[in-house]
Specification:
Largest sheet: 10 strands, mixed
Number of helices: 25
Mean pLDDT: 76
């Protein structure tokens, strides 16, 4: 029987796949590679070859097949062949009881990019020899573990004998390095750290592996414990020595090596100690260092090993670790053991009593795992092992079946590039090596591997200066390699000589080489790397015919404008296969004999819908459409019906024949049957032949139709009517008759498996792990989900105490208890409702409370609702998006049943007064039980019951709750699982949270009551408690703002502060309640994360006047002690209590006698009593304020009267609470590489407590310094370790780093830095790079390379750039016409001012004539250090100190003034943003005009800005490194005002061949290179000053001298001009005859051989004692900056020294320097001071002061 024939489409697809030329694609890669030699060619790809045939004219680099097809002789083809040879292969013998592999050795040579696959067989026997070595922690805490191990020696031997018959056992012990700080180095402790203990040691091999169990037990009995100091132990040293000292330990070569590591502490690892970072210890050399006694000797000289080192060495020596650790250190080793492919981890009991059971379990787990890894693999080789037999685990090992030979597939791949470097350019050890492919339990496979990187032999035989190359090149590998400057096939064309272009001109064209190449030596050299070809480059190889969008159908290549097809293809676009394989039909013929094959396709003689691509009948298409096609013709011819009846029936191409019987379906092509729409009768017909009826074809039609019998259609409507009537009756019964409803529920159709019940019957909860005070308990509905079912439920607390709830209810029926109430509102929940304090939340809360209070006021004794919150309830069916309201109602204990009935009634009515609620849901919680209802909507299977857990401090250690489903008040469901038991286990708390005292006194004048909450830490972790206020005589929202929330204590935190806002008494309240003491309570509840509430967990806050409260207290105490009229005694029982981080409350009992008052002395502990502060008080208490956080104070008190002072009380000490720390000190970066940095930081200047941890965050930022993606967080929980090594950063990407500190009060603010490591030089460890970026002065020359300047700006300087660029839009101000602020200067002094003094940062005194440029931030930071007064707040920008422009006092009325400043911001190397400030004008401005042109002349461009509100414009398409002059002026109705002019240059790197084209990605900066340096003024007398300036950096021509212009800033006198001849680095001019208190404007411009350059301008005022705020000291006057325009703050600086000039932003620099808060001193020489003054107060010169770190 013939099988199914393949589809013609399948055959066509198969033929097309077979015709694809796979090498062709690789040929593209080889052919397209731009190579110059044979060696470069064969390194492109593993399939590339090179042709050395001298006569070969095609591309020489191609695949071997393509080269041979193109005519290269076979002997001239150079190919590097790879090799693979198995050198040792012994078959596996499964009878041997040892691990085996096959093959055992092989040699492989691979080309770059090549892969090799082979199979590796590994056999692991069912039972193999076992070597078990126990490595035990011998610190003192493991003493009980050692005792148990001594007793279990025999038991351990029995277990080993059950695992294997051939075993050995050994024992070693470790403690830690015998050095500081790991070990107590006192002589007595070195001898015996603990009573009856051995001296400390690092590691000792006690018992080598032996099969003598008796000897093992005997030696073990002699061991004693030892000890050390710190908790982490030196186990890593012991593990490494155990692994590498194979002979000393006694590991056998063919056995399974198990290492049991037993400890209860964490571990030291490489570089985790300060000794290592300081360079004291060197890295571990991974060698064995055991002496004759088995003791490790190099613990003092070598560091601990790293984790990767241990993983590698244990795998190398077939050692499998088993970590047996206690619960205390389990988390450390849980992470550690995952690094080992095959390992085990078990929890050891505190006394190690279960070590034998743990060992047996670990052995069974390890026995079935096998890891295969490649050791010592070179960088250029990748090895991957997979298996079809065994499954891989998460750690990469295989889950095997022992006793079977496992087969593994190994892939060896030689990669082409390693980190962007070709593999052949790597060192030899990265390309060749001996790889050890090693399974866990055996020696493995040795592979000698290498990557072929040999040179081609023809390159070693080159003919130097060959005559074939005209002496201008070397003949090599069949062609000439021309020397530089020569080209052509024979190197006869000089590339530097002119050529006649006539031979390169094509007829009819005027461009040589068709404009697609260059004419060299009369021959066209085409552009495009092979794109253009031909004598005149006239052919474009991208313009050949295409098929389906592919050039030459991807079956050929384009050459000389035509497709050269691959073998087997033809046609203009290579789209016609020469083979007729795609035309072969199912019978082996061509096109089924009904057509012809052209271009791989059949062209059928007679087309049909039912013929396929090979002209065969497509029977599947026949069956789909033939019957339908013939239907209308059959219908009209046989019965005269259908859509074609009438004349159109004659168009049918066949005739029908009526027959009595039709043939069977198997005998015909198709059997068809349809219904005639006119009589609803079915007719049938058959189709024979090939399914394509022609004019002479006949279709056989069954004569008789199949019609339905006489109808009873009139019965159908009657039956439908009766059924609807019955359904209506049943529905009425269901609705109004409870008896009928119960009966119907018993019917199988109404209740078939319809059950609701709880999903689980028991929950076990640990209170320490609970994060909530409720449990969402799922309830399921099975069977029919139609209809609504509502279920009542109940939960009872403390069912383990019989009668507890009943007894609690009967104690006091009138006692007010809080009732928790939850309802589902008939409105959807929004995000704002979940945020307390939003307007939407407050409005809904008010609406809910008003309506519920209206309903519940009928309950006698009930109070108003409080603590109303909103939430969503997950798993609530179709209403889980609705809002759930939770609130608390205070009512008598006896009102529970009344509350329940009223609540259920209102829920059933769907409203509480005017508040709409959803039916079927409520929860009412009393103090010991709760009741509620949940609803299953139609189609809902599961809902959650929110069960309250009644977490109380007085709960039993194990308490029980019972949840019960009571009934189904609505619905047809029956109850299934009715009961749920909940067990809550109270474990030992990790912290006890409480108030410090039960009552706190708060003065009514204070705005906030600050109540401390403390935590006593038992086991460090986080703890959380809830708090809420409760009214007493003080009422919420009248006396205070009610508060509730959660307090979260992070690990290490011991103190938090609650803040409750107090309200002032209104006038009526103060009259009515002036004598009443106002009180309210604060309750702590709901402890989470293992916390417990201590005593007191409720505190009373008393609000009142302090004097009245203390007087009341005094009266009470004095009534208790009889008053004596004798001499005053000392105050009794002095008591001090911290009331916050900066406040202490100190009280005492009055002494005998009648004191008039009390005198308190207090001081910081350790200071002298003479430095004490003194306070007096009329009452026996006082509050000490403005204290330091976390500081110990001592205090004492005495009473005084008219007779004098009494004796002082005893001394009392008290420590203030902690406060969050300041930001950490400076961040320092040691740049290890472009992707690795070591970050360190200084301790906060104000720790305000004990620092417990630091948090380091880092993440990518974009050009705007905005974060890209999430920040990575690292918690440094060792506060003394302020250092972090960060690796694997993205290269050349800026990162944002933040560090913040934490103490017991919480996290402080963060210190931030942004740095790009790629722009930083690598520096030695002793010179950290202080952020934000070390800047080498771009203008300082080579003498300044050794100095660093620290800037707070974020700078991005590509490597090689000589000028850093500012990443943000820092605006560079041009004052007047030429005053310019260079990038990188802002905030530099501010940064250094906040640096810790211990780092010794100083201002360099070596550069006396430079001026330091700062921003206004400096002024703000230094205002407390200088005699400077500020009015208002200065902006950040340089513009705060802009100079006054020359304003004509004779401007016409209504004309605008000059724009006050110009600001240039470089947006790119050719674009600039120009900004200005709106000028003053009496009339409304109408717009601006901006003109600019090249400084040396050229076209003038004008931009008109009609919008007066637009004060900036972006100018594009500027020329790089060209100076432009910009002029801006404003217009009003009266005309144009004067213009502001500025000159600017955008400097950037340009293309060497195109000086007007900037290099992409290069740095760009702004400069004014041809203007003189900044102007520096020194006052000489009241009427004269000295002016100095620096030489222009790049003057336009040779400098002949300078022209200085001096004029009054506001006019009045003609300008005076000075000529200064010469060209020196710094020029000076003394200007006499000036007036006091008059501002003068100076302009300086250089006179060069090309004319006058741009001006530098500045304004200065000499003020006398009479005319201004500067006193005249020593006959010298001060210098003063003119007041700034109205929108800026004025700055007035007081001159405080003799002849001391000053910086005009308020920083006074004197010969004694400035001291910033005692933490930073700047030494400034007299020479610097005497000549440092910046023009116009802008401080805008290039920063040349160098900061360096000693």
């Amino acid at each position: 029987m013939a099988g199914p024939r393949p589809s013609p489409w399948t055959r066509l697809l198969l033929a097309a796949l077979l015709s694809v030329s796979v090498p062709g694609d690789m040929a593209n890669r080889c052919r397209k590679a731009q190579v110059k030699s044979c060696t470069e060619c064969i390194r492109v790809d593993k399939d590339c070859a090179y042709c050395t045939d001298q006569t070969f004219k095609d591309r020489r680099c191609n695949t071997q097949a393509e080269l041979l097809a193109a005519g290269c002789r076979p002997e001239s083809v150079v190919v590097m062949e790879s090799s693979f040879e198995i050198t040792e292969e012994t078959q596996i013998d499964t009878t041997l009881r040892r691990s085996q592999v096959s093959p055992q050795a092989l040699q492989v040579l691979l080309r770059p990019g090549e892969e090799r696959h082979f199979e590796l067989e590994v056999f692991e026997p069912l039972e193999s020899p076992v070597d078990l070595y126990i490595l035990m922690d011998f610190s003192n805490s493991m003493s009980d573990d050692l005792d148990n191990l001594k007793q279990m020696g025999e038991h351990l031997a029995r277990v080993l004998s059950r695992l294997t018959s051939d075993y050995t056992i050994g024992f070693g012990k470790f403690v830690d390095k015998v050095s500081v700080p790991q070990t107590d180095m006192r002589p007595e402790k070195l001898k015996e750290p603990w009573p009856h203990s051995d001296a400390p040691f690092s590691f000792k091999n006690v018992i080598s592996l032996t099969d003598d169990v008796t000897e093992f037990r005997r030696k073990l009995q002699q061991e004693r414990i030892s000890g050390n100091l710190d908790a982490p132990e030196g186990g890593f040293d012991a593990i490494l020595q155990t692994a590498v000292c194979t002979r000393d330990i006694g590991w056998r070569p063919d056995s399974t090596h198990l290492l049991v590591f037993s400890t209860e502490s964490a571990f030291h690892y490489e570089a985790d100690g300060a000794n290592v970072l300081a360079g004291i210890l060197k890295r571990n050399d991974e060698e064995c260092h055991l002496d004759a006694t088995g003791t490790y000797t190099q613990y003092k000289t070598q560091d601990y090993p790293s984790v990767p080192t241990l993983v590698r060495l244990l795998a190398k020596h077939n050692i499998i670790p088993i970590f047996a650790v206690t619960n205390y250190s389990y988390s450390y080793y849980e992470k550690l053991h995952k690094y080992f492919p095959v390992s085990s981890l078990g929890v050891l009991q505190e006394d190690s009593s279960n070590i034998v059971e743990l060992l047996q379990e670990a052995f069974n787990r390890i026995h079935s795992n096998l890891d295969i890894r490649a050791l010592d693999s070179p960088r250029g080789l990748r090895t991957e092992v997979t298996s079809k037999m065994f499954q891989k685990t998460e750690t990469g090992s295989f889950h095997i079946r022992r006793g079977e030979v496992g087969t593994y597939q190994v892939q060896l791949r030689a990669i082409e590039d390693v980190d962007g470097t070709h593999v052949c350019q790597l060192p030899e050890h990265d390309r060749k090596g001996n790889v050890h492919l090693k399974p866990s339990f055996s020696d493995g496979l040795r592979m000698d591997v290498g990557i072929i990187c040999d040179l081609c032999a023809c390159e070693l035989q080159k003919e130097v200066g060959s005559p074939q190359c005209s002496g201008n090149g070397d003949f090599m590998c069949g062609h000439c390699v021309c020397y530089e400057g020569w080209s052509g096939k024979t190197c006869s064309c000089s590339t530097g000589s002119l050529s006649d272009i006539q031979p390169c001109l094509r007829e009819g064209e005027d461009k040589p080489c068709s404009g697609r190449g260059e004419c060299q030596c009369g021959r066209c050299v085409c552009y495009g790397e092979g794109r253009y070809e031909g004598q005149f480059c006239e052919y474009d190889n991208f313009q050949c015919p295409r098929a389906s969008g592919f050039l030459c159908n991807d079956r050929g290549r384009c050459s000389m404008g035509q497709c050269e097809c691959e073998p087997g293809w033809t046609g203009l676009s290579c789209d016609c296969p020469l083979s007729n394989a795609t035309c072969i039909d199912s019978n082996g013929g061509i096109c089924n004999g009904r057509g012809r094959c052209e271009c791989g396709r059949c062209h059928c003689d007679q087309g049909s819908l039912y013929t396929d691509t090979t002209c065969e009948i497509n029977y599947s298409a026949v069956r789909l459409g033939l019957c339908e096609d013939l239907r209308s013709c059959v219908q009209c011819q046989a019965w005269g019906t259908g859509e074609k009846r009438g004349r159109t029936c004659e168009e049918c191409g066949f005739k029908v024949k009526m027959v009595d019987e039709l043939k069977n379906a198997e005998e015909v092509v198709e059997h068809c049957s349809f219904r005639d729409e006119e009589d609803d009768c079915n007719y049938s017909y058959t189709v024979e032949g090939d399914g394509t009826p022609g004019p002479n074809s006949t279709v056989l039609v069954h004569r008789k139709k199949d019609c339905p019998p006489g109808s009873f259609w009139w019965l159908i409507p009657l039956l439908i009517f009766l059924l609807l009537l019955l359904a209506l009756l049943l529905l009425l019964c269901w609705k109004y008759c409870a008896c009928c409803k119960a009966c119907l529920a018993l019917l199988p159709c109404c209740n078939r498996g319809h059950i609701v019940g709880f999903k689980e019957d028991h929950y076990m909860l640990r209170e320490s792990l609970m994060a909530s005070d409720h449990l969402d308990t799922p309830m399921l509905r099975s069977g029919n989900f139609k209809g609504i079912d509502r279920v009542r439920w109940k939960v009872t607390n403390n069912v383990q105490r019989p009668g507890f709830a009943t007894h609690a209810a009967s104690t006091n029926p009138t006692e007010l208890v809080p009732y928790g109430l939850s309802l589902r509102l008939a409105r959807l929940c929004t995000e704002n409702l979940l945020k307390p304090g939003t307007r939407e939340c407050d409005q809904l809360r008010q609406e809910v409370e008003e309506n519920l209070n209206e309903v519940y006021r009928q309950i006698a004794g009930s109070h108003k609702l409080q603590q109303t919150k909103f939430r969503q309830q997950p798993n609530a069916g179709k209403k889980q998006d609705h809002t759930i309201v939770d609130t608390v109602l205070m009512a008598p204990r006896s009102a529970k049943q009344a509350l329940l009935k009223l609540t259920e009634k209102q829920v059933a009515q769907r409203a509480f007064h005017e508040l709409k609620v959803a039916p079927g849901y409520y929860t009412l919680t009393a103090d010991q039980d709760a009741r509620g209802m949940v609803e299953f909507q139609e189609g809902v299977e599961l809902v959650d019951v929110r069960v309250p857990l009644f977490i109380r401090p007085e709960d039993d250690d194990e308490k029980q709750l019972l949840v019960e489903a009571l009934n189904v008040p609505m619905g047809t469901a029956t109850l299934g699982r009715r009961l749920v038991n909940i067990t809550i286990i109270k474990e030992q708390a990790n912290g006890i949270v409480s108030f410090e005292q039960p009552e706190y006194l708060v003065s009514g004048g204070e705005q906030v009551a600050r109540i401390p909450v403390v935590r006593r830490i038992l086991d460090n972790g986080k703890s959380q408690v809830s708090y809420r206020t409760q009214d007493n005589t003080a009422q919420g929202n009248r006396d205070y703002i009610p508060a509730e929330g959660e307090l979260l204590f992070q690990p290490g935190e011991t103190w938090k502060e609650l803040q409750v806002k107090l309200l002032e008494l209104q006038e009526v309240d103060s009259l009515l309640r002036s004598r009443q003491v106002r009180r309210f309570h604060i309750q702590l509840s709901n402890p989470k994360f293992g916390a417990r509430l201590g005593q007191p967990h409720s505190a009373t806050v008393v609000i009142g006047d302090r004097d009245e409260l203390d007087l009341t207290f005094q009266n009470q105490t004095q009534s208790a002690f009889p008053v004596s009229n004798s001499v005053l005694g000392a105050p009794q029982n002095p008591n001090a209590k911290a009331a916050g981080s900066r406040k202490i409350h100190f009280n005492w009992l009055p002494p005998p006698g009648k004191p008039t008052g009390y005198r308190v002395r207090y001081w910081i502990q350790g200071d002298s009593d003479s430095e004490a502060h003194v306070l007096e008080s009329k009452v026996p208490s006082v509050e000490l304020t403005n204290l330091y956080p976390y500081c110990d104070y001592e205090m004492k008190v005495c009473a005084f009267s008219t007779q004098g002072d009494g004796p002082y009380s005893s001394l009392v000490s008290c420590r203030t609470h902690q406060e969050v720390p300041n930001e950490p000190g400076r961040l320092a970066f040691n740049v290890v590489s472009s992707t690795v940095t070591q970050l360190s930081w200084a301790e906060p200047s104000e720790t305000n407590g004990e620092i417990t941890a630091y948090e380091v965050c880092y993440g990518l930022v974009n050009e705007d310094n905005r974060p890209i993606g999430p920040m990575k967080k690292v918690l440094v929980d060792t506060p003394k370790k302020r250092m972090l090594l960060i690796e694997n950063l993205r290269e050349s990407q800026p990162y944002r780093y933040t560090v913040k500190a934490r103490n017991g009060a919480g996290w402080g603010p963060e210190r931030e830095a942004i740095i790009n490591l790629a722009t930083q030089p690598k520096r030695p460890m002793s010179i950290p790079i202080i952020p934000d970026i070390p800047i080498v002065d771009a203008q300082g020359g080579e003498d300044y390379e050794g100095f660093l300047m620290y800037s707070d700006e974020v700078l991005r300087s590509p490597s090689g750039s000589q000028r850093p660029s500012v990443s943000d839009d820092t605006e560079h101000l041009v004052n007047g016409r030429m005053d310019f602020a260079f990038p990188g200067s802002a905030n530099s002094l501010h940064r250094m001012a906040t640096t810790n003094a211990s780092y010794g940062t100083h201002l360099s005194p070596h550069l006396p004539h430079r001026v330091l440029s700062t921003s206004s931030t400096l002024t703000r930071d230094y205002h407390s250090l200088t005699r400077t007064e500020h009015s208002g707040t200065l902006p950040r920008d340089y513009s705060t100190l802009t100079s006054l422009s020359s304003q004509s006092s004779r401007l016409a009325a209504g004309l605008p003034n000059t724009p006050t400043r110009l600001v240039f911001s470089a947006l790119g190397p050719t674009s600039l943003k120009v900004s200005w400030q709106e000028p003053q004008c009496e009339r409304a401005l109408q717009g601006y005009s901006v003109e600019y042109q090249l400084l040396n002349g050229g076209e003038l461009y004008r931009l008109n800005i009609p919008n007066p509100g637009q004060t900036s414009v972006v100018v594009e398409d500027l020329l790089p490194n060209h100076s432009y002059v910009f002029r801006v002026r404003a217009q009003s109705q009266e005309g144009w005002g004067p213009e502001r002019e500025g000159v600017i240059t955008i400097e950037s790197q340009v293309h060497p061949q195109s000086p007007l084209l900037p290099l992409p990605g290069s740095a760009f900066t702004l400069s004014t290179p041809s203007a003189p340096g900044p102007l520096v003024f020194t006052a000489l007398s009241p009427d004269s000053l000295q002016l100095s300036w620096e030489r222009p950096r790049r003057p336009d021509g040779d400098i002949l001298g300078y022209m200085v212009t001096c004029e009054m800033a506001h006019g009045g006198e003609p300008a005076i001009t000075f000529q200064v001849d010469g060209d020196s680095t710094e020029s000076r001019l003394t200007v006499p005859g000036l007036r006091e208190n008059v501002p003068y404007k100076f302009k300086v411009q250089a006179r060069t051989t090309q004319g006058f350059g741009p001006e530098r301008e500045g304004i200065i005022t000499i003020e006398s004692q009479d005319g201004g705020p500067f006193p005249q000291l020593g006959g010298l006057s001060g210098l003063y900056q003119h007041p700034l325009p109205g929108e800026y703050s004025s700055i007035t600086t007081t001159h405080t020294g003799t002849a001391e000039p000053f910086l005009l932003d308020g920083l006074t620099l004197g010969p004694r320097g400035l001291e910033a808060g005692g933490s930073l001193t700047r030494h400034v020489t007299q020479e610097f001071v005497s000549q440092t003054l910046t023009t116009s107060g802008t401080l805008s010169s290039q920063v040349d002061q160098q900061f360096f770190q000693t």
